[in-house]
Amino acid sequence: MTATNDQRTGSLGFESKLWDAADLLRNNMDPAEYKHVVLGLLFLKYIEDAFEERRDALRAAVADPDSDYFVADPAARDDELDDLLEDRDEYTAENVFWVPEPARWSFIRAQATQPTIGKTLDDAMDAIERDNPKLRGVLPKVYALPNLDKHSLGKLIDLVSGIGLGQKEHRDKDTLGRVYEYFLSRFASAEGRGGGEFYTPTSIVRLLVEMLEPYRGRVYDPCCGSGGMFVQSLKFLDAHGGRRDQVTVYGQESNRTTWRMARMNLAIRGIEANLGPKHGDSFHEDLHPDLRADFILANPPFNISQWGGDRLPDDVRWRYGAPPAGNANFAWVQHFLHHLAPTGTAGFVLANGSMSSMQSGEGEIRRRLIEADLVDCMVACPGQLFYATQIPVCLWFLTKSKAGGGEAGRRDRRGETLFIDARKLGRMETRVNRVLDPADVARVADTYHAWRGTGGTYEDVPGFCKSATTEEILAHDGVLTPGRYVGAEEVEDDGEPFEEKMERLTAELSAQMAEGARLDGEIRRALSAIGFGVL
Question: Which of 44, 106, 438, 514 counts the highest number of beta carbons within 10 A?
């Protein structure tokens, strides 16, 4: 049976309807504003669903003779139940957020048609933050803004009311997480981003995670955006039978509203993460100065020119050369290396220009990275992967140790770098956006693992992958573009000798040209016969 588009993309089936309803809110609001309205509302419904499910469980437990909560006396049961249902510890002990009465969905829905619904929602967000310290300073209070259409807001509340998000079955399916990712991608497509910052498509994040395999240790993203790298890392861990308590997550984000979104995104997945006490610029206010991470996953802003490099001329991080003040790409590269543990690996997205640029000392920094044997793998990605930019991108993988051995059992790769040209992979999901399917992700990741000696047998594949020596790379002036090394894809040999094929094709071309000349003459004669003259 042919898979539907919803099945292939993991769609839940109702996201587009939800998006259409949310889009009614836009009116005089730009996407950067109203995305917080929508995502905050979804988050509120999620925690309410989980809260109500826990309340139902407590109601059942009081009447269950096999439960520790059982109350034998029916006359006393109601009083006991009332106390139990309002005991905050009964919820927080099960990792369920406590929802105070002014924030409960039944109350909010009853107010949905009132002109004061905006203030009701803002008050609800305040009440939840007061009673849940983890969420303090995170939830949006934007619902009373005068440019937010309250009638459309009420209609969205009604629509969200019919969607299950926080019950266990939906938590197991990560329903809210998938809706959240869908909305983030649609917002990215609608609004774009300034300063080279773009939402990272899920398939790229999944590829980075599958290649790095962060089973245990410290995972770090110094430009974490909405937290997608962490979400995929934990999904990978869960899918491969790993233990969450063996992974610690660190992040940083310079944009205050995005930092709050990241905390919301991680909270709905139950992911404990240290994103610092506030938002902050990783270059000028490093919130994790002593961190040495086992895995770094990142999509830093592309080609940023206003990053304040002139204020960091002798920074300790610029071990391989001061990055140009007009482009932060190699500042990010060296920031990652600075925070990398001695046996750690970093995987990150950069614009293609980073692989070959010789401007402003970038070529010299890249050459020093190559000479230090830090470049483990380079992947050229297909175009049109990002929603809001056509900038072609690549993936860099850096490591401070290629010696092999250790717990992972990798082979000795010193003096070697793997190049993968994945530009022909993926499929067009829409007219303008390409995605990498699971098979594409697996092909690239499996190639990398085989090359490192942790699965399968590696072989160079013309047109796709090549293991090159440091000497070869330096002979190409330190250019790291995979196309320079993988060569051309082999064409299947049909067994016909080249000389014979050339003679045959030349004869066929001559015959076709002669036939074309004959037909041209017939047309001229026909036109002349009906009075058009000779053309």
Answer: 44
